[in-house]
Amino acid sequence: MGNSEIVEQLSHLFDPRTIAVIGASNTKMKWGYIVPANILAGGYKGKFYPVNPHDEEILDHKVFKSVKDIPGEVDLAVVTVPAPAVIPVVKECVEKGVKSCIVISGGFSETGEEGTALEKEITKLLDGSGMRLVGPNTMGVYSARSSLHALMPPVRPVAGKIGFAAQSGNLGTQMLSLGKALGVGFSRFVCIGNEAELNCADYVEYFAEDPDTEVILLYIEGLREGRRFIEVALETSPKKPIVVLKAGKTEAGARAALSHSAALAADETIFDGVLRQAGMIEADTTEEMLDIAKAFAAVPHPKGKRVGVLTWGGGWGVVTADALAKYGLELVELPEDTRKQLDSILPPYWSRGNPVDLVGTLDLSKHFSCIEILARCPVVDAVITLGTMGATSSFQSFVLEGPLPGELNGDLGGGIKPRVIAGEFLKQLQAVDEAYREKVIDLMAETDKPIIAVSFPTSGAITPMLASQSEVVIYPSPERGAKTLAALYEYREFLDRKHALAR
């Protein structure tokens, strides 16, 4: 199958003009109500047809007795009926000429032999039909372009550049929700389910050609067509980074994967070799999965492993130096010319080395100048800046949540309360945050170097700045920033090897 064919076929899945929900219901605790409610509440603008042989109206829409009764073409059918009723429903979809179908229902190969037999019957019905099928045992799809939220949970992801395919709907949709809190935006999402027909390789092939997708994110428990997956990944990785979280590596995890999505877990050693061969970037945790994906979507790849570090205090610089060394990056020695430029800005007692210790300098314009000097330094390939961002969040948690120092409790005279002054100062800090963001974006565009920020939110809450990262990246610890930078460099090394072999 050519790339253009899979793109055409899956366009009916991700950007449907017409949707039929088969098994739609007026009973609010059924998926037949929740899924269509999510579709409509999510802002889908295409034609929507509920299908149920017993009702006349659902969610203010006329109900059809069968999908075959719907006038005109149906791009996408979403099936929510119980497993024993799925076979005749899919048969009707094939007869109608439906272009794509999502089977939400569980109770198939993940449950054992009887469910496996049902699943095989579904695939037989598809032979020669041209209809593509997601699932069964799936939580649905999301598409930013079409405002399509054909999902079981009421998740409203941020639109972005990441295409995400997951073999767990629960994990996948929770990552969409967490992504919204962290400013990680998605172009498409699909819960792969049992892969009775469409499989992981198909989605990677589609994402590779999708103009809305710049980064591909995968959660994998096992592979149905391992050889084809490798071939597609090899073709895709030089064009777009693929970030993978592979679960089911342990014996216990493999058993859980089989009962969860009927996935046959791959041998860890073999899978790790496949990842490296195909240039995919492996995340070790769900946290890393989002950390790395959002960086690929926002910042340039470093051309080398030499890092300049700017820190508001010395201790964090030491921690960052250790983290960089752990992940194979280099804390580069700054040339004399760069140190002289920093001498003109910082107090005479600054560290005169890398990390560049700001020794508590409060003038944030000097922070900006130091970032600029490091980013333009010819021996620096990437910059990590610690503590320059996050002043807003730290101050907000102190003023609005914690007690004020004794001298600030009470009236400051003239009826002026300390928290009023704090509120005004907070606005000034927010303006500084925005200026920082603009400065970093401009510097990355000018130098083609990544600038990674580390903030230290004191309240444990996700701060507004951490949740607005479409063009910058901010991490809550230097270890996470360093690990992400190492992933960016790993991908750059892969691209360099590919280019060298192509010569």
Task: Compile the SSE list and pairings.
Layout: H1 3-14, E1 18-22, H2 31-41, E2 47-51, E3 57-58, E4 61-62, E5 76-79, H3 86-96, E6 100-103, H4 113-126, E7 132-134, E8 140-143, E9 148-151, E10 158-166, H5 169-182, E11 185-191, H6 200-209, E12 215-220, H7 226-236, E13 242-246, H8 251-261, H9 268-278, E14 281-283, H10 286-298, E15 306-311, H11 314-326, E16 330-331, H12 336-343, E17 356-357, H13 364-376, E18 382-386, H14 391-400, H15 418-447, E19 451-454, E20 473-475, H16 478-502
Helix pairs in contact: 1-6, 3-4, 6-7, 7-9, 10-16, 11-16, 13-15, 14-15
Quick structural gist:
The protein is α/β, with parallel strands linked by helices.
Essential attributes:
single chain; 16 helices; seven-stranded mixed sheet; alpha/beta; 2 domains; Rossmann fold; six-stranded parallel sheet; 503 residues; 20 strands
- Briefly note the structural class of the backbone: alpha/beta
Order of neighbouring strands in the sheet with most strands: 9-8-11-10-12-13-14
Strand content: 15-25%
* CATH fold-level name of the largest domain: Rossmann fold
What is the alpha-carbon Rg in Å?
Answer: 26 Å
| Overall 3D form | elongated
- Which stretches are poorly predicted, pLDDT < 50 over at least 5 residues? 260-264, 393-414, 416-420
DSSP strand tally = 20
Q: In the CATH classification, which architecture of the largest domain applies?
A: 3-Layer(aba) Sandwich
Helical content stands at: 40-55%
| N- to C-terminal distance | 29 Å
Major beta-sheet overview: 7 strands, mixed
What is the average per-residue confidence, as pLDDT, rounded to a whole number?
Answer: 88
CATH homologous superfamily descriptor of the largest domain:
Succinyl-CoA synthetase domains
Number of helices: 16
Query: How many domains make up the 3D coordinates?
Result: 2
Quick one: CATH class of the largest domain? Alpha Beta
